[in-house]
Amino acid sequence: MSGTASTTTHEQLSVEALRSHFDVRPGYLSACLVGAPPREAVAALAADLAAWSEGHRDPLSYGVAVERARRAFAQLVSVSPDEVAVGSQVSVSAGMVASSLPEGSEVLVVDGDFSSMVYPFLVQEQQGRLSVRSVPLEELAASIRPSTTLVSFSLVQSATGELADADAIVAAAARNGAATFCDITQAAGWMPVDASRFDAAVCHAYKWLCSPRGASFLTLRPEFAERLVPTAAGWYAGGDVWGSCYGPGMALAGSARRFDVSPAWPVWIGAAPTLELFAQADLAAVQEHCVGLANALRHHLGRPATASAIVTWPDADGRQFAALTAAGVAASARAGRVRVAFHLWNDASDVERVLAAIAP
């Protein structure tokens, strides 16, 4: 099964309480593609835009938003803020991990996994630095061997919604001395995730975590961080951010902040209140809600129940995706399949909308 966050003691927001912060129109079933922002994010972004239009915007306020987001994300995935680096894209973080591996390393990836978790390693393989093996998700744990340096995988597969057996993968990696690098983008926000289980975990927050696109995170165990080279280091990676604007003197941060990528400022104005909201959520209840709706749809489609909030089925000619779109249902199409995703704002009426749209 997947990683699960440890129990927290703060009062958690119920699904109903969390839903009250969103104004999502019925039929939106595409959080796996793009999340929808809470009202707090919309208001914060509008206020920032208004302030920016006046020209007197204090850049320091953006740094405050970045640190708020970093702390909230750390709480959300059960790690210390000192173990979280901020970025803009999954592929940038994966590229740094790939380029930091010793020459001759063997990397194990998943067939059909999202390309940002595969391409950076293939690029290094083309340069003759690494060797890459690809196996089906269900064979991943059994395929880890003593020669494996790193296992790269998504906790929830983008194309199919299938969940990785993280328990088995982490255990097999430990037995064989391999490091684990996990993409939690399609998991964090609808299910509890404990990123501390992995040597490194990466997440882009614009999907299930409903933040503006351009806010991503990389969690790092300190011992694994020591093996990495901060190839994207710039002023924001300095121990003193505003004192690191000019070279050649370089004093990088001692924490995971040395892997920070300079933030796209307005993005973090929206990300901070959104992530603080999710950090308060009862994600076990959100998971039960989302998976319950997904399995209700699977039942009507004659498909077996799973533990995923994402439902996919074959649609090679795209007709069912077109029918859903025509009926006002926001779905997505991936790898010859139609894909719907149930989040906290969805309810049983959305299951009925899907069934009505694709009925013969």
Protein topology:
Blueprint: H1 15-19, H2 39-53, H3 59-76, E1 84-87, H4 90-100, E2 105-110, H5 119-126, E3 130-135, H6 140-143, E4 150-154, H7 166-176, E5 179-183, E6 200-204, E7 216-220, H8 222-225, H9 265-279, H10 283-301, E8 310-314, H11 319-326, E9 332-334, E10 337-341, H12 348-358
How would you describe the overall organization of this protein?
The protein is an alpha/beta fold. It has two domains: 15-37 and 281-358, Aspartate Aminotransferase, domain 1 (Alpha-Beta Complex), CATH 3.90.1150; 59-279, Type I PLP-dependent aspartate aminotransferase-like (Major domain) (Aspartate Aminotransferase, domain 2). Helix content is 36%, strand content 14%. The chain has twelve helices and ten strands. It has helices at 15-19, 39-53, 59-76, 90-100, 119-126, 140-143, 166-176, 222-225, 265-279, 283-301, 319-326, 348-358, and strands at 84-87, 105-110, 130-135, 150-154, 179-183, 200-204, 216-220, 310-314, 332-334, 337-341. The strands form two sheets. Strands 1-7-6-5-4-2-3 form a seven-stranded mixed sheet, sandwiched between helices. A three-stranded antiparallel sheet has the order 8-10-9. Strand 2, helix 5 (119-126) and strand 3 form a beta-alpha-beta unit. Helix 2 (39-53) packs antiparallel against helix 9. The radius of gyration is 21 Å and the shape is globular. The two termini are 36 Å apart. The model is unreliable at 1-9 (pLDDT under 50).
